[in-house]
Amino acid sequence: MAVFGVQEDDNDEIKKFQLGRFIFSNEAAWRIFGFDIHEHHPTVQRLAVHLKNGQRVYITEETARHAVEQPSETTLTAFFSLCQNDEFAKSLLYCEVPSHYTWREKKWHRRKQGEDVENWPGVKKSDAISRVYTVSPIHQEWLLPEATTSPRQRTHII
What we know:
It contains 6 helices and 6 strands, in the order H-H-E-H-H-H-E-E-E-E-E-H. The chain has helices at 13-20, 25-32, 64-69, 75-85, 87-90, 140-143, and strands spanning 44-47, 101-104, 107-110, 115-117, 120-125, 129-132. Strand 4 (115-117) and strand 5 (120-125) form a beta hairpin. 9% of the residues are buried.
C-alpha cells in the first residue's frame, strides 16, 4: 500500500534571486527613471579580417561537403564582391561600408533610410559604425599583403 500527499511548494527560485541580488545606486536610479538598460544606437557592425579561405566555418555532418566546396560569405569577402558590382562601393574603404550598407543574409544591401549622399542618387548614409577585428603584428601578411591602390584589388588576401 502506498500513501502520498500533495503539498504546495513555496520554493520560488525567481523571487529568491530577485530578493538576493545587489543593485548599485546608479543602476537603481537608471531603472527608476525608466532609461533603456541596453543601447541600440548607433548600430555597430563587426567586420571580419582573414586571409584567402581563412574564414571560420561551422560545419555539421550534413553541411560538411557544402562548407568545403563553397565557404560562406564573410563581411570581407562580400565587400570584394560588392566592389565588383557597385560603383559607389568602389569609393569606400572597408570600414566605411556599414554606414552606407546593411549586412543581411550574408550580403551587403544599400541602406534605404538615412541622409542622401551628394552626387550619388539612391545612396543613403546612416550613423552606423564599424568595428574591425584587431590583427596581431605577428601576422604581417594580413596587415600589408601587397601595396595596392584600391581595396577592391586586394582579392588575393581573401
